[in-house]
């Protein structure tokens, strides 16, 4: 099972913070993470839990030859996906209603988005509005992280 669950009730969280002799190392990180994942729902009003996704325990699927997709962390409002794509592989033009942010971890690619063409390499990122047609061709072996909002239910089945 790829999840390590660390539950913490709303009553335990303040006591957890008080257990540190001084300020916690990153005191706002759990609150910020929870606020992002719940899209503004007050974090201390519900159970807190960290669902740790171990990448090596997530089975990849191959939507096309040369492309492996791993769905990593996700909640109904947000999804993180790792794409490993072999050089020369083209992901055809497509569109979906989800907002998408793309970050190139490794390699170089050509992106066609909304009728424009751009060359991206490791360290580059961009955001794509929902409904905008886009596609990618890998110039080298690439690893790309995608973030979708809301989650892509079609990736979960």
What is the CATH third-level topology name of the largest domain? Jelly Rolls
Q: Summarize the amount of helix as a percent range.
A: 10-25%
CATH superfamily (homologous) name of the largest domain: Jelly Rolls
Largest sheet properties: 6 strands, antiparallel
Cα radius of gyration in angstroms? 18 Å
Structure annotation, total helices:
2
Distance between the termini: 17 Å
Number of domains: 2
Give, in order, the helices and strands: EHHEEEEEEEEEEE
Mean pLDDT: 82
Offer a few descriptive terms.
single chain, 157 residues, mainly beta, Jelly Rolls, 12 strands, 11% helix
Task: Kindly describe this structure.
This protein is mainly β and 157 residues long. The protein has 2 domains: 3-53, no CATH class; 59-155, Jelly Rolls. Helices cover 11% and strands 48% of the residues. It contains 2 helices and 12 strands, in the order βααβββββββββββ. It has helices at residues 12-18, 29-38; strands spanning 3-8, 48-53, 61-64, 67-75, 78-85, 90-94, 99-106, 108-113, 116-121, 125-128, 134-138, 142-149. It has a 6-stranded antiparallel beta sheet, with no helix packed on it. The chain has a 4-stranded antiparallel beta sheet with strand order 6-11-8-9, with no helix packed on it. Strands 1-2 form a two-stranded antiparallel ribbon. The longest helix is centred in the N-terminal third of the chain and has 10 residues, at 29-38. Residues 24-45 have low confidence and may be disordered.
Helices, strands, pairings?
Elements: E1 3-8, H1 12-18, H2 29-38, E2 48-53, E3 61-64, E4 67-75, E5 78-85, E6 90-94, E7 99-106, E8 108-113, E9 116-121, E10 125-128, E11 134-138, E12 142-149
Antiparallel strand pairs: 1-2, 3-4, 4-5, 5-12, 6-11, 7-10, 7-12, 8-9, 8-11
